[in-house]
Amino acid sequence: MNRVIRALALVSAAITLVHQAQAQEGGPPPANVRTNAAQSQEVVVMRTVSGDMVASRRSQVAAKQEGRVIELRAEAGDVVTEGQVLAQLDATLSRLDVTRLEAVLASMEASVVESNANLRQSQRDLERLTDARNQGSVAQSEIEDAEIEISAMQALVRKAEADLASARASLDFAERVVEEHTIRAPFAGQVVRKNTEVGNWLDRGGSVVELVALDTIDAYIDVPETYISSLLAKDATVQADIPALNTQVASDDVTVISAGDELARTFPVRVRFDNPEGTLRPGMSVRALVPTRSFENAVTIHKDAVLRDDGGAFAFFDAGGQALPVRFDVKWYVGDRAVVAGARINPGMRFIIEGNERLYPTQPIADMDATSKADG
Predict the structure, then answer these.
(1) What DSSP designation does 117 have?
(2) Does pTM top 0.70 for this prediction?
């Protein structure tokens, strides 16, 4: 440790002289940055388990009606939105049925109008007969015949209205059949397989495309029974490394599936990740970190200091007013801290957490937090 401190002191002194020389020669001004110190702290030990990414929703988008495919608007790899048209089946006969039922509906509407008019006429006839009876010029039998006729007219009105309701229902059904010849995406996602072509005949239930959702994605991992209790806690979080993307993700949407392997003594665990940019894909391998009940002392740095490139994780630290990079492995994250290993990082070294995206090695820096370096 003393050697490291002495070495850093010598580097700092040398860099100071370089900066003075640059200032005299009119070199570039230092970049303004903010820093945070590496810490030694007790952390929960994480256990690495493996798994695979699986689509949270996968659907064989099927035809609800039979028919010939006259238009196909989806290809494998297309990203589609919910409700987007994927294919169109020939609906000529169904449209003709709609036209026929529209005519039937118009006829039923006319029947209702006619029946109501006849009922009103019968009611007026009864009123005239009633007035005439009061004057003694009409027999009671005529009144009774008029009342019977009104009852019959009321029955005809009810029948006409029932026929009208039936015609409307038939037309609604026929229009729905026409609409179902248009096949739409049930959710937003990506087409991974096309299962038909223009000109093919599809029966009801025939698959048009296979669609997977991309907004969320699941990782299925096998976790030893020893660590299951940690995942059953309400605040349990699983961190995952995606080797194909050289990135890390985390989620607290964790579900332990109650169907363990009796021989391996492991349980499948589903972890659902938000995937708004669609970068996580089904089939990718996962190295997940699950919490154990053990603790260890470790060196941590602020997560905002961690940068990544093709070579892995690295960060810039303040080497006496100059940004120098150091590479390391991120073992896991604890809150806003990254547990690091594989490099000579000592508590107290100040890592750049703001303004580090465009730095280059040996670039002069000015720590904006230099007056408050006791933040830990």
Answers:
(1) H
(2) no
